[in-house]
Amino acid sequence: MGTTRLLYSAASSRPSQITVKEFANALSKVWRPANSLPRGQAVQIGLAISGGVDSMALASLCSRLSAADFPVQLDPHTSGRSYAASIRLRAFVVDHSARSGSATEAQAVSRLLEKQGISAQVLKIEWPEDPASKPNFESLARKYRFRALGKACRDWGTSSLFLAHHADDQAETVMMRLAAGHRSKGLTGIKYHSEIPECYGLHGIHESGGIDHPSMGTYLPLRKRGDLRDITNSIGSSSSATTFDHSVKSMVLDTSCDQEGLDWKPQLPVERGGVRVYRPLLDFSKERLIATCRANNIEWFEDHTNTDRTLTRRNAIRHLFAGHSLPAALTKPALLRMAGKMQDREAQRQDLVSSWLTRCQVTMLDLLTGTATVRFAALDKVKESRVLCEADLRRTAAELLKRILMLITPNEHVELSSLHGAVAHIFPEIVSREPPRHVSGFTVCGVYFQRPRDNCRGEASPAPDPPCKPQWYLSRQPYAAHAGQTFALAFGPADGAWSPWRLFDGRYWFRLRNAHSVVLLVRPVRKDDWSDLRDLRASSTARTRLDERAPGAVRWTLPAIACLEADGTERVVALPTLGIALPGFQAVADSTWEIRYKKIETDGLICRRSR
């Protein structure tokens, strides 16, 4: 961490520079402005700039693109509209504060950017402890760096962050994954675009914020979103349990529809948006990035820790490429070709999963309780066709299961390797020729699967699915004993101001306006809360709603709002997703809340009539 970085401004080189038109073509393949952007409004793009040759080349190309004197059509679906002239750039320079002189260096990088006409902002990382004492410094630096970048993008009002990864980075990544034993999907390498990493749970950054800022993004809302009203409820103090029929009525997937696509009744708003990272230089070699900087007299800083082959695995791989003759199959061009083939294969797999998804019947999706009823597609004829080998068939079935799981799971990620057992339960037709053993329930990735009944009679099934493919009822896995404190969110007194949005249990975004002196908690309903819920008996509507929407153990997976008393005890005052507030709590009578469901992907889901 005590290294110095030298400023470079080199002479000519043989590799050709990247032209603005080349860059625009590459950019249009991975990014395009949102259709929701009002005409005439500038497209805002954030640039992650370290000061190295890669990121300085990115900055130069973006600057020249925004000043291009020829029409650049970044959106092939918008005829005759040029975005280049309305691009606004802001470079974010991260000062890791990990070594002496880092602040001075960050300011020097900012000055180089301003020479190109790019507004620059230095983001200083505040370490809780001395970074030199951290054995996992690199991973922590990555986390803090992306969180700083994500917050800067959100605060500036953009969801597009460009990174300067290039083809050499791609080849090094594939080589490292080969050495680590990765196969198939792992060899696709670096993605051209993805959600911003290391920012889980940060509202407006990680897969959220699009409701508040609909034009802040490049990805459209889901195909059919329905009513996006916020559910805003007051915690009442009436003499009987209060319900909010205007907000909760019909907040469940309507199964009377025949058209494709989920038919949304007024449910909880579903989050969308979030910051995404884009890598428009991934098809260009580092040599061409250097040539681009040289041809345009762009200065850059060189970090000589990148040449220390003992420091990181990537540096060691970089040294192999630079100083050794490798077998033809391990050269950069060969690795890039392999990554391209793996990307094509993975895209075909995802297309196949999407086609299978349309054969799944989702007859209920209730966001108020986080539950769904699903009849999965039958895959026996796919197996008989021998289009896929058994390993690929199981993997593709796991991808299909993952798409459904993400509707309900509280987990940030679902790893395919954790789904082997679940695939056998749900798709026994592809893993065994013997009659499947009846399994009434199981848990995977935080989701509890139940078979409430073998529903074959009178159920319409689209040919060629077999009539007895069972339905599954999906709900959040019951919490472990004494898990309430682990998941609890505390909202202190705030003089009536709205709290920031906070993610509860990976499923619900909450914010509260606590107008009083008590602390309000959002936590799971517990069995010992039932005495607090006894007043539900006074309201048949509230009792019926709880019984119908959250039968059995499902009610113990619901979020509750509890009042933290002075003696440390907790009293439940509301079941917010069901719109139920309990009586007799004057101290919180003026407090309000808003709830949204996590971002989910519903494209391809089919609503089937349940007869």
Automatic annotation (TrEMBL):
NCBIfam families: lysidine_TilS_N. Pfam families: ATP_bind_3 (PF01171). One of its GO terms (molecular function) is ATP binding. Keywords: ATP-binding, Ligase, Nucleotide-binding, tRNA processing. The keyword Ligase applies. This is tRNA(Ile)-lysidine synthetase. SUPFAM superfamilies: Adenine nucleotide alpha hydrolases-like. It catalyses: cytidine(34) in tRNA(Ile2) + L-lysine + ATP = lysidine(34) in tRNA(Ile2) + AMP + diphosphate + H(+). PANTHER family: TRNA(ILE)-LYSIDINE SYNTHASE-RELATED. It is an enzyme of class 6 (ligase). InterPro entries: Rossmann-like_a/b/a_fold, TilS/TtcA_N, tRNA_Ile_lys_synt, tRNA_Ile_lys_synt_N. The lineage of its organism: Eukaryota, Fungi, Dikarya, Ascomycota, Pezizomycotina. Its EC number is 6.3.4.19. One of its GO terms (biological process) is tRNA processing. Residues 45-196, 272-319 form the tRNA(Ile)-lysidine/2-thiocytidine synthase N-terminal domain.
